Each structure stands twice: as structure tokens, then as C-alpha cells.
Amino acid sequence: MVRPGSLARVFLALLLIASSVTYAQNQVQPNQLQAFISAVDASGAPVTDLKPEEIAMAENGAPGKVVSLERYQLPIKLTIAVDNGRESTQALGALRTGLTGLVEALPPDVEVTLITMSQPQTVVRPTTDRAQITQGIGRFGPESRAVAKFSETLVEYANRVDKDFKDKKPAYSPMLVLVATSAPELEDVQPDTIQKALNTLLARGARVSLIMFTTTPTNTTSVTDMKQGRQALIAAPLVKASRGRSEVLVAFNRLETLLPEWGKEIAVSHTKQINQFRAVIDRPGGATGALNNLTLRLTRPGTDGSVSGDGRFIQ
What is the dihedral of CA 84, 90, 94, 100, to 10 degrees? Predict the structure, then answer.
């Protein structure tokens, strides 16, 4: 924990990770680093007036120099995809309670889209209107004769994100939260189409998280499929690669508390991402190539900070 008056020391581990995310590909010189920094003061409030001289970078003990520092915003846009197939009927109350709590935990400027997977169908189009989102959560219901189209939902979401990013000037950080049962889906999407969608989401910097639950905890197949079923096997590599979260719930009532917890984490990430700075730093001695013993600290008393290689801050 950083005390008032001390220096906030931040290790730039994420800068060592090569990123294919479009918005992390701003050009810097071979002897420079790009870092995204989000700082707070002693009261926990975001620092919005950070100065270049308040950032001290060193490599192998030798100082670098911040040559540019600019405000940078990458707000989160959240899409929630809910399984409303026939297996979700018993969990409807827990789903609505949990989703409402998630939305209530978000800052008011986070845009939310709500879709159901039985079609898939957009229940709430992208909006920050909390009343509209809450009404949508209370409006959707289970399709008693349907099963969720999990793969089709992923493909459609990937297509929408790709369309948004076609101009190469991304203005937001896409986030998808999938809430699905382990009931088998309709296998009407070809594997190559699914793979293309997963590649697109990773290339566009989307973060994907998954909650898999069952409403039949005494059914061995249903419980096993939460980790080994088609949906789980499709989503697992994407969740891991995008640094998302994954939970399996035998007791579906846990949705009531887990979803609000995720909402609080999303809120923290969003707040950091809309209150960050993009720094370009000259490495000492004109060094290029692999980084060695790299550190960064904030010299303003009482400040604490986080650093990212691509402008996303994952909790």
C-alpha cells in the first residue's frame, strides 16, 4: 500500500507483451516505449493533470525521458449475452437480480447492450439509460422450446465489433459477458466461422468473460458440460487469451451476487481507462531491442498508479 508522500512504483510487465490490438499499435521509435498510465491521489480520486516530469522511468538503473504525455480515454462498452433457452427457466429470478446488480454497479456513462441467445435477439440496444436497461432485464424471459445459440451469438458480436473498428480509429474497449447454461446448443455454425470470430475479437481487443451455470445440479452430464461441453470448449481459449474471467456455478442462485461483483470490477477498469495518459518515453542511451530491468514510478507525493501496455486495465 502506498502511503502519502511516498513514491508509487509501477513495474511495466505488460509492456513486454506484444499486442495485436489495433489501438496499442501507435507508432513509436525503436528506442522508445509507449505506456498507458492511470493514477490516483491520496484520496483515491483520479489524477487528471499528470505532468511528464512526474513520471520517472529507469532501465538498468539509467533514467529515460518522457517525451510526450497526453490524456487518453478508452471507455468500456459492455455487451451482456444471456442464455434464455429452456434450461434457464428456474434461474430467471436469479438472473434478473444479478444483472440488475451488475448494471447498478457500473458508472452512469458505461454503455450497455443486452442480448438473449435463443435467437439471438437484442433486448436493449446500446444505451447508457439505466431505466431502459433495467426494463429490458425485466422484460426478457425463457424460450420454453428453444436452446441457446451460443456460437451464433459470439459470431454476431464479433461481426458488430469488427464493423465498428473498420476505420482503424477505435474509440472504446469492447467487453462481452456471457451468461450461459450448459445445455447443448444448436450446432449450426461452422468451426471455421467460429474461429474467425474468435480471432476477430482478439484482434479488436475485446475482453470476454463467461459464467456457465446449470439448473439441474443432480444431472451429471449437465454438471460435466459446464467445463467440457461445446460452449465451454469454444469459449475457454478466448476467455483466457482476452484476460477475461470464467466461473462455473452448480448453484445458480450465486448469480445474484456474482454478477454485481463483476459489475464493480468493470467499474474500476472503466474509471481507470477514461482517466489515463499515454506516455512516450525515450529509453536511456538510445537503447533498442529487449527491455532490461525496467521500472517506472510517479514522483508526485501521495499518488499511486497502474500501467498498461494497451490502454486496458484488467482487474
Answer: 30
